[in-house]
Design a protein that fits this description.
The complex is a heterodimer of chains A (46) and B (572).
Chain A: H1 2-45
Chain B: H1 2-31, H2 38-52, H3 62-85, H4 102-113, H5 123-126, H6 129-158, H7 168-194, E1 204-207, E2 213-216, H8 221-230, H9 251-276, H10 279-305, H11 309-312, H12 332-344, H13 359-371, H14 380-400, E3 405-406, E4 409-410, H15 413-443, H16 463-478, H17 493-522, H18 539-570
Antiparallel strand pairs in B: 1-2, 3-4
Helix pairs in contact in B: 1-9, 1-12, 3-4, 3-6, 3-17, 4-17, 6-7, 6-8, 6-9, 6-17, 7-8, 7-9, 8-9, 9-10, 10-12, 10-13, 10-18, 12-13, 13-16, 13-18, 14-15, 14-17, 14-18, 15-16, 15-17, 15-18, 16-17, 16-18
Classes of the chains: A mainly alpha (46), B mainly alpha (572).
Chain lengths: 46, 572
Amino acid sequence: MLSKLMLQESNLTFNFNKMIITILLIALGALLFAICFKSVEFFEKI
Amino acid sequence: MNTEFFGVISIFIISIVLAIPVGKYIAKVYLGDKTLLDPIFNPIEKFIFKISGINSTEEMNWKQHLKALLSVNMVWFILCFFVLLFQGSLPLNPDNNPNMSPDLAFNTAISFVVNCNLQHYSGETGLSYLGQLMLMFLQFVSAGTGMAAAAMVFVAMRERTTDKLGNFYNFLIKSCTRILLPLSAIVAVVLVFSGTPMTFEGKDKIVTLQGDTVEVSRGPAAAFIGIKHIGTNGGGFFGVNSAHPLENPTYLTNAVELWAQLIIPFAMIFALGFFLNKRKLSWIVFGVMTAGFLMLVIPTIISEINGNPAIERMGITQATGAMEGKEVRFGPAISGFWSIATTVISTGSVNSMHDSSMPVSGAMELLAMMVNAFYGGCGVGWLNFYVFIILAVFISGLMVGRTPEFLGKKIEAREVKIAAFIAILHPLLILAGTALASYFAANDTAMGYWFSGNATGWLNNPGHHGFSEMLYEYTSSAANNGSGFEGLGDNNPFWNITTGIVLLLSRFIPIIGPLAIAGLLANKKYIPESAGTLKTDTTIFGVMVFAVIAIIAALSFFPALALGPLAEYFSM
């Protein structure tokens, strides 16, 4: 029973970590695209 | 060996000859002339534009072009990221392939959006058919994006003084439906008739001659491989790419796949000449690119057919050349030619393993991606070359005391600053990434989340070759090429995320730069040619552009090449 509970907990932790990493990677992708959008303005004013 | 040389030379010449009519056709498409495919695609396009609320006849300036380009690519990135993340639970997964990890999905989505197709997974076990179809869609639109950007530069170069430079969505759709789709269909048909699978059924079981039962992966491969080469994408359907017998079954398919990756980059240069009605300029550009290509391909073929001296010292004959990592049915000459074609042109598909190339070949493959302007990828090859033209016009103008002008437009500080920024960004991204990875490997750092174990664990080879593996990975990412020195253990958060960053920045900023230059120049007053104008369609100017490219590449990359493949060559 205990090992079953521990397994469930480890799965939950794993999924939670995975979710956080997914969100961070989406944020990173958005940041990279934001840099590209900003560089359009940068090249106009350079 | 003579047969092999005949194969190489004939494929190269046939590709050049066919590129001229294809270039004429491409120019016709971008000029808005009627084509045979209009009756089929016009109604579909109108429907797509109507439901998307896009007015495809609205003229855009360069900033609107770029904002449309970036927005649509961002949507594709997010869509692809989620499909790969949940592919295990989505339809079209008969082999029950699992979801991708977040970092691998991040890398793969960016990689296919940016036309690189760096693959840190094996297609047979890493992707469902829905995932493969999603990536196939990206292979069309990413190539179309590069071509649409080049088309805007064509318009900017042709017009005298304007900020109206066509419509991005119109160029994108026309590139996909009028150019990429029909050419890919031709290649796919040849592949299907040569034995490449085209099915949605799962793995097949076959009994070998030894009597063993093995499972053979299949899927909608032929369609995927067609656009993989026509769009200079390079992502393989199967893990070993075009070295796989179902991905590249015969010498004929090998020739067709080579032709397919050469045709659009060649044709785009001729399209420029037809579009501007300046054919001499396009021949000068093509001549410079071809000179650069030959300087890379000839040493490669020679080093591959001469064989490996280290293996020869072990008493193993090298009469058939250096055959480690190569397919017996293709041989060293055509494999060497392919390795340079695929790195010069940013396809990145392989029919032999580059990690096993001779050191000189490895140096040439790296140099091809470091220059990234000899032919180059669909549309973007021309954009990269355009940056070097601007720098060459400026430098040669200063040298001979003439006004730096290109096609009747004065090159001023702003354009030169942008060109210099773009020229420096490429080596910066490659060398910074390599320096970071080398630092961790040199110190054998424990990487925690980023890599299971210490950093040297991602290297398959010590010393110079190990350094080359890391340099190659970042060079391939920055050049949006996608080939790899596959000895590197790259499917882990460190490589997936760092190369993902390099991939995205090195795709879009080098598109934004030339489009900004072209847009700014198009807005300027047209100055008619006079005796004081520096002529840009002469052989002398071509030599000047070549010199600028060679000097920038040598200054930026020679130290890194000396530490990797050149040191390996001298230590053999």
